[in-house]
Specification:
It is a single chain. By secondary structure, the protein is an alpha+beta fold. It has one domain. Helix content is about 15%, strand content about 30%. It has a 4-stranded antiparallel β-sheet, with no helix packed on it. A 4-stranded antiparallel β-sheet has the order 7-8-9-10, with no helix packed on it. It has a two-stranded antiparallel ribbon with strand order 3-4. A hairpin with a 4-residue loop joins β7 and β8. The longest helix has 19 residues.
Length: about 140
């Protein structure tokens, strides 16, 4: 997620590998005052968004997974960086970011293994649980 530097806008990127060949996702632009959400990516499957950064009030840097893993060994370690420019992001139309807007050079974009995060969360919960368990009394 990335807050727009001057407007009441928040860019939100989503996505995942569909378990097959494609990296699906959305780039959402909610207007924080009106509550209107705009889905920006033109393609029907969208594109997995890995990172977002507003460079200025007109330019949004987007890091995306490759569109698919067809004959590409590095799809889980690489992404594509694109910078989309709009003069007024509050007036941007739904599905108005197309392949030209999202084309960019390949860049390192390793994804953490979600199992590692889950193992860390379980270990943290276990330590909290153990710290809160009652200590047996010697008087019993």
């Amino acid at each position: 997620m990335a807050f727009h530097p001057r407007r009441s806008l928040l860019a939100i990127g989503t996505g995942r590998c569909d378990g097959g060949y494609f990296f699906e996702g959305e780039l959402l632009l909610p207007h924080l005052k009106t509550g209107v959400f705009t889905s920006l990516i033109e393609h029907e499957l969208g594109r997995q968004v890995l990172g977002l950064e507003w460079l200025d009030e007109h330019s949004l840097r987007v890091l995306m997974a490759p569109p698919d893993d067809w004959q590409d060994e590095a799809v889980h370690e690489d992404g594509h960086v694109a910078v989309a420019h709009r003069s007024d992001w509050t007036a941007v139309l739904a599905q108005s970011l197309n392949g030209r807007d999202l084309a960019g050079p390949r860049a390192p974009a390793p994804r953490p293994d979600p199992r590692e995060a889950a193992q860390r969360a379980v270990a943290e919960l276990r330590s909290v649980w153990q710290a809160q368990r009652p200590v047996p009394s010697k008087d019993l």
